[in-house]
Amino acid sequence: MADRRKLEAGMAVLTIFGALLLLPPLVYVFNQPISHLGVPQIVIYLFAVWLLLIIATALLTRALPREDSSAAEDD
Fold first, then answer.
1. How far apart, in whole angstroms, are the C-alpha atoms of residue 40 and residue 42?
2. What is the pTM of this model?
């Protein structure tokens, strides 16, 4: 059960970390008039952060053990 708590805590940390990455102070760092292959740097940054958050969430969700519904009914 400790692993489940660690993973749930990891999900909370991931949520906070993701929010911090998408808030203006850090986003302004990447808001420069620079383009990579014609795509503005800020767009690449936002989509890269979004993709990494999706992948991290999928990995953490996959690692979570399923809740035992019979144990919940017994309580």
1. 6
2. 0.75
